[in-house]
Design a protein that fits this description.
Layout (H helix, E strand, L loop, with lengths): L5 E6 L10 H20 L5 H4 L6 H12 L3 E6 L7 H5 L4 E5 L5 H14 L4 E5 L1 H5 L1 H7 L5 E3 L4 H10 L9 E2 L38 E2 L2 E2 L10 H5 L3 E2 L2 H14 L5 E4 L8 H13 L5 E6 L6 H9 L2 E9 L3 H6 L6 H14 L3 E6 L8 H16 L5 E2 L12 H4 L6 E3 L16 E3 L4 H22 L4 H25 L3
Parallel strand pairs: 1-2, 1-3, 3-4, 4-5, 7-10, 10-11, 11-12, 12-13, 13-14
Antiparallel strand pairs: 5-6, 8-9, 15-16
Amino acid sequence: MSVNKKVLLVDCPVAPKLLYDDRTKEIMYVKKAIEFYLDFRGGRNMLERKIKKSYTLGLLTIGAYLKEHGIEVEYISFPFDYGRFEDLLKNKDYALFTAMTPIYPYVRPLIQKAKEFNPGITTIFGGYHATALPAQILVEEPALDYVIVGEGEKPTLNLILSSGESDDLPGVISRSNMSKNRFKKFDLLTADEIPNADYSLLPGDKFEYRFNIQNTRGCPERCLYCQNGFFWKKVRTRPIDKIVKELLEIQSIFQPNFELHITDNIFTLDRKFLNDFKNAYYDNGVKLNFSCDIKAEYIDEEVVKLMDVINVKKAWMGFEDSSDLILVDSGRKNSFENNTKALKIIKEHSDIKVQGYWMLGLPGTTAESIQYNIDCIKYLLDEGLLEGISSDSLFVPLPGTPMYDMATLYGIKILDNDWLNYHRSQFFPVFETEQLSRTDLRDLLIYFEEEVITLQLKKYNMSRKDIIAHYESLLSKVLDDESVILEKRIF
């Protein structure tokens, strides 16, 4: 089927400007230096990978789905390709945008520019932030025509095929129907329908991009601070033959043993899938290495051995908080004891390196609970159960989660609606709780970060000066080829 419609996918994979003073900026710099030191120490020089261009995977799967249905699609990445933006818009019928919450302020001017360059174009905005606040976004931005809620493939296609008759289309919000509940029925693909990302849409040399892959959409958990479960609704795993095809395509771009990040919310969720993945990995000559996200509830000896045999080199485990009471109040079905047990299994049965995610400031957080987290981290580092701590540590109540939508119910007072500040890599909370003021939480977060930095430097017998010198030495080796990319990723 051929449809005489042309779509421009507009990506904005930028690193936002964050609010740092001199002290917090230095803390973040040292944290990044530790992260890359640990990778280098383990034979995983990831710095070159991390300064490559990013892309939004969902735009590439939507592009693939539209192309399968005969629609002409092009892709542009801001700010890299901004010089082509006006020319590419001239003959397009639709422009599709997406953004996470802290990136939306950068995308909004692009939506306005699209209408300025081509007044007849139909503008569409989707993704997590769009799904959370569709009516508010449409009211605030007159240059925007439609909002897509939930995953975007079917709603976008149906909107294009409907020629604007959108009132009854699942997943499509317009000014004429935005008074309806935003939790109107989403239009989900089946597992078999989920397309592979279309990497041919990416302009330029594919080697310049930071590739990742998604095997499974969705998360079975409904943690009160997380957007994933509420956005994707149900869990669906793509057919293994599609996954293998995508893996081999990525492998053809990079050298053997390239480390590919798996973006599944919980890679170890399905034991049968892991076995199928292992068999397909070896049957089809896949030679990639992997990193992934895991949860303790889905870790045992068999799962760890499967991870090891398919060359998972690094995993990130979500602790969020070491206090079981805070976890319960946050809808997180786990405990510090379970996390520790899972880490011991990983250490005993594999060489996989694990870093921990913390999320400080959840309801119930106090000065005492912060100190308890520091003590727990010391134990985990001393026992060799954790390699290090993720650089993002601040809880942010994101739109679309119960802790934002019903903040007062959880003792949270939202103080800031500047979306630029809704980013976990900073020290300026957008809220306060019944236990802590905004300033108190900021001071405790700085204390936590300083203590954790000290613990990690002590473990690896490095000084602050040494770790920074090592980081800057690594930077100097890659900047000759990648400096333009690094510079343009940051506004």
